UniProtKB/TrEMBL annotation:
Any one GO cellular component localisation term in the record: cytoplasm
Residue ranges occupied by any N-acetyltransferase domain in the UniProt entry: 23-208
Record Pfam families: Acetyltransf_3 (PF13302)
GO MF entry, a single one: protein-N-terminal-alanine acetyltransferase activity
The protein's name in its UniProt record: GNAT family protein
Amino acid sequence: MVWAPRWPVILRDDSLRAPGGTLLLRRLRRADRDAWMDLRADNQDWLERWEATTPAPTGLDRQGRHRGWPGRTQPTRPPSFTGYVRALDKAARDGSTLPFAVELDGELVGQLTVSSITYGSLCSASIGYWVGQHVAGRGVIPTAVAMAADHCFFELGLHRVEINIRPENAPSLRVVEKLGLRDEGLREAYLHIQGRWCDHRTFALTAPEVPDGLLARWRSTQGA
Protein backbone atom coordinates (compact mmCIF):
# COMPACT_ATOMS: atom_id res chain seq x y z
CA MET A 1 0.00 0.00 0.00
CA VAL A 2 1.22 3.49 -0.86
CA TRP A 3 1.07 5.97 2.01
CA ALA A 4 -1.09 8.91 0.94
CA PRO A 5 -0.05 12.34 2.28
CA ARG A 6 -2.59 14.84 3.45
CA TRP A 7 -4.33 16.60 0.56
CA PRO A 8 -5.15 19.34 -0.24
CA VAL A 9 -2.10 21.18 1.04
CA ILE A 10 -1.48 24.93 0.96
CA LEU A 11 2.08 26.24 1.16
CA ARG A 12 2.63 29.99 1.60
CA ASP A 13 5.60 32.33 1.50
CA ASP A 14 5.67 36.12 1.87
CA SER A 15 9.36 36.74 1.22
CA LEU A 16 9.26 37.71 -2.46
CA ARG A 17 10.29 41.26 -3.12
CA ALA A 18 7.91 43.70 -4.79
CA PRO A 19 6.31 43.58 -7.25
CA GLY A 20 4.60 40.49 -5.90
CA GLY A 21 5.01 39.34 -2.35
CA THR A 22 2.67 36.47 -1.45
CA LEU A 23 3.27 33.12 -3.11
CA LEU A 24 0.85 30.22 -2.65
CA LEU A 25 1.13 26.62 -3.72
CA ARG A 26 -2.39 25.16 -3.64
CA ARG A 27 -4.56 22.63 -5.43
CA LEU A 28 -5.81 23.51 -8.90
CA ARG A 29 -9.57 24.15 -8.78
CA ARG A 30 -12.31 23.86 -11.37
CA ALA A 31 -12.90 27.59 -10.84
CA ASP A 32 -9.38 28.19 -12.24
CA ARG A 33 -10.48 27.09 -15.70
CA ASP A 34 -10.65 30.48 -17.42
CA ALA A 35 -7.48 31.81 -15.81
CA TRP A 36 -5.61 28.57 -16.60
CA MET A 37 -6.77 28.52 -20.22
CA ASP A 38 -5.83 32.17 -20.72
CA LEU A 39 -2.43 31.65 -19.11
CA ARG A 40 -1.66 28.66 -21.30
CA ALA A 41 -2.83 30.44 -24.45
CA ASP A 42 -0.80 33.58 -23.67
CA ASN A 43 2.33 31.47 -23.09
CA GLN A 44 1.96 28.84 -25.79
CA ASP A 45 5.17 29.77 -27.61
CA TRP A 46 7.04 30.12 -24.30
CA LEU A 47 5.99 26.66 -23.04
CA GLU A 48 5.23 24.43 -26.00
CA ARG A 49 8.77 23.38 -26.86
CA TRP A 50 9.21 21.88 -23.36
CA GLU A 51 5.88 20.01 -23.19
CA ALA A 52 5.99 16.28 -22.49
CA THR A 53 4.21 13.99 -24.94
CA THR A 54 3.17 10.33 -24.92
CA PRO A 55 4.92 8.21 -27.56
CA ALA A 56 3.00 5.74 -29.67
CA PRO A 57 3.53 2.14 -28.51
CA THR A 58 6.14 0.30 -30.56
CA GLY A 59 6.27 -3.29 -31.69
CA LEU A 60 3.63 -5.85 -32.62
CA ASP A 61 1.76 -8.37 -30.52
CA ARG A 62 1.64 -12.09 -31.32
CA GLN A 63 -1.21 -11.53 -33.77
CA GLY A 64 0.80 -8.96 -35.72
CA ARG A 65 -1.20 -6.01 -34.42
CA HIS A 66 0.32 -2.80 -33.13
CA ARG A 67 0.90 -3.20 -29.44
CA GLY A 68 -0.93 -0.88 -27.03
CA TRP A 69 0.18 0.27 -23.60
CA PRO A 70 -0.67 -2.43 -21.00
CA GLY A 71 -3.95 -1.68 -19.26
CA ARG A 72 -4.46 1.59 -21.14
CA THR A 73 -6.28 2.83 -24.17
CA GLN A 74 -5.16 5.80 -26.19
CA PRO A 75 -7.51 8.76 -25.58
CA THR A 76 -9.31 10.10 -28.64
CA ARG A 77 -9.31 13.64 -27.30
CA PRO A 78 -7.79 15.57 -24.38
CA PRO A 79 -9.74 15.49 -21.10
CA SER A 80 -11.91 18.42 -20.13
CA PHE A 81 -10.46 20.85 -17.60
CA THR A 82 -12.80 19.36 -14.98
CA GLY A 83 -11.50 15.90 -15.86
CA TYR A 84 -7.93 17.17 -15.66
CA VAL A 85 -8.48 18.61 -12.17
CA ARG A 86 -10.21 15.40 -11.08
CA ALA A 87 -7.27 13.31 -12.30
CA LEU A 88 -4.79 15.53 -10.45
CA ASP A 89 -6.76 15.24 -7.21
CA LYS A 90 -6.96 11.46 -7.56
CA ALA A 91 -3.19 11.21 -8.03
CA ALA A 92 -2.70 13.40 -4.95
CA ARG A 93 -5.05 11.28 -2.84
CA ASP A 94 -3.29 8.13 -4.04
CA GLY A 95 -0.03 9.55 -2.73
CA SER A 96 1.97 9.48 -5.96
CA THR A 97 1.79 13.20 -6.81
CA LEU A 98 1.36 16.65 -5.29
CA PRO A 99 -0.05 18.82 -8.11
CA PHE A 100 0.20 22.46 -7.05
CA ALA A 101 -1.13 25.55 -8.76
CA VAL A 102 1.29 28.48 -8.36
CA GLU A 103 -0.47 31.67 -7.29
CA LEU A 104 1.24 35.04 -6.93
CA ASP A 105 -0.71 37.75 -5.10
CA GLY A 106 -3.98 36.07 -6.04
CA GLU A 107 -3.07 35.49 -9.70
CA LEU A 108 -2.61 32.01 -11.17
CA VAL A 109 0.85 32.12 -12.78
CA GLY A 110 1.87 28.49 -13.26
CA GLN A 111 2.01 24.97 -11.88
CA LEU A 112 4.47 22.89 -9.88
CA THR A 113 4.15 19.12 -9.58
CA VAL A 114 5.89 16.81 -7.16
CA SER A 115 5.67 13.45 -8.92
CA SER A 116 7.02 9.90 -8.65
CA ILE A 117 6.76 10.07 -4.86
CA THR A 118 8.38 6.87 -3.63
CA TYR A 119 8.98 5.61 -0.09
CA GLY A 120 10.82 2.54 1.16
CA SER A 121 14.54 2.36 0.44
CA LEU A 122 14.41 5.23 -2.09
CA CYS A 123 12.34 7.95 -0.35
CA SER A 124 12.50 10.25 -3.36
CA ALA A 125 10.42 12.47 -5.62
CA SER A 126 10.77 14.48 -8.82
CA ILE A 127 9.77 18.14 -9.21
CA GLY A 128 8.57 19.73 -12.43
CA TYR A 129 7.15 23.18 -13.10
CA TRP A 130 6.07 25.82 -15.59
CA VAL A 131 5.34 29.50 -15.17
CA GLY A 132 4.06 32.37 -17.27
CA GLN A 133 6.75 34.39 -19.00
CA HIS A 134 5.46 37.64 -17.44
CA VAL A 135 6.67 36.53 -13.99
CA ALA A 136 9.83 34.68 -15.05
CA GLY A 137 13.01 35.95 -13.43
CA ARG A 138 11.26 37.30 -10.33
CA GLY A 139 12.13 34.42 -8.02
CA VAL A 140 8.71 32.82 -8.23
CA ILE A 141 9.77 29.34 -9.33
CA PRO A 142 12.97 29.13 -7.23
CA THR A 143 10.87 30.03 -4.18
CA ALA A 144 8.13 27.58 -5.16
CA VAL A 145 10.64 24.76 -5.69
CA ALA A 146 12.24 25.50 -2.31
CA MET A 147 8.82 25.43 -0.62
CA ALA A 148 7.91 22.13 -2.27
CA ALA A 149 11.29 20.56 -1.48
CA ASP A 150 10.98 21.51 2.19
CA HIS A 151 7.50 20.00 2.28
CA CYS A 152 8.95 16.78 0.83
CA PHE A 153 11.76 16.69 3.38
CA PHE A 154 10.03 17.87 6.56
CA GLU A 155 6.43 16.76 6.07
CA LEU A 156 6.67 13.70 3.82
CA GLY A 157 9.95 12.46 5.24
CA LEU A 158 11.61 12.04 1.85
CA HIS A 159 15.37 11.85 1.52
CA ARG A 160 15.91 13.19 -1.99
CA VAL A 161 14.29 15.38 -4.64
CA GLU A 162 15.40 15.75 -8.23
CA ILE A 163 14.65 18.00 -11.20
CA ASN A 164 15.25 16.89 -14.79
CA ILE A 165 15.87 19.66 -17.33
CA ARG A 166 16.55 19.80 -21.06
CA PRO A 167 20.16 20.98 -21.57
CA GLU A 168 18.97 23.85 -23.79
CA ASN A 169 16.30 25.09 -21.33
CA ALA A 170 18.24 28.08 -20.01
CA PRO A 171 15.47 29.53 -17.76
CA SER A 172 15.05 26.21 -15.92
CA LEU A 173 18.80 25.75 -15.61
CA ARG A 174 18.96 29.13 -13.90
CA VAL A 175 16.41 27.93 -11.32
CA VAL A 176 18.53 24.99 -10.15
CA GLU A 177 21.69 27.11 -10.32
CA LYS A 178 20.11 29.71 -8.03
CA LEU A 179 19.00 27.00 -5.59
CA GLY A 180 22.35 25.21 -5.61
CA LEU A 181 21.13 21.77 -6.66
CA ARG A 182 23.81 19.25 -7.52
CA ASP A 183 24.32 18.45 -11.21
CA GLU A 184 24.30 14.65 -11.52
CA GLY A 185 24.90 14.49 -15.24
CA LEU A 186 23.10 13.69 -18.46
CA ARG A 187 20.32 11.15 -18.95
CA GLU A 188 20.17 10.29 -22.61
CA ALA A 189 16.75 10.04 -24.31
CA TYR A 190 15.16 10.41 -20.87
CA LEU A 191 11.73 11.93 -21.61
CA HIS A 192 9.46 12.16 -24.64
CA ILE A 193 9.13 15.87 -25.50
CA GLN A 194 7.19 17.22 -28.45
CA GLY A 195 7.29 13.98 -30.36
CA ARG A 196 10.83 12.76 -29.73
CA TRP A 197 12.99 11.30 -26.98
CA CYS A 198 15.15 14.05 -25.47
CA ASP A 199 18.21 14.15 -23.25
CA HIS A 200 17.88 15.74 -19.81
CA ARG A 201 20.29 16.81 -17.12
CA THR A 202 19.46 15.65 -13.60
CA PHE A 203 19.83 17.97 -10.61
CA ALA A 204 19.26 16.67 -7.09
CA LEU A 205 19.29 17.55 -3.41
CA THR A 206 19.07 15.42 -0.27
CA ALA A 207 17.61 16.42 3.07
CA PRO A 208 20.94 16.34 4.98
CA GLU A 209 22.32 18.97 2.58
CA VAL A 210 19.77 21.52 3.81
CA PRO A 211 19.18 20.83 7.53
CA ASP A 212 17.48 24.22 7.92
CA GLY A 213 15.53 23.83 4.67
CA LEU A 214 16.09 24.84 1.08
CA LEU A 215 13.82 27.88 1.45
CA ALA A 216 15.98 29.24 4.29
CA ARG A 217 19.09 28.76 2.18
CA TRP A 218 17.47 30.44 -0.83
CA ARG A 219 16.31 33.37 1.33
CA SER A 220 19.82 33.82 2.70
CA THR A 221 21.18 34.31 -0.80
CA GLN A 222 18.54 37.01 -1.40
CA GLY A 223 19.25 38.90 1.81
CA ALA A 224 15.71 38.08 3.08
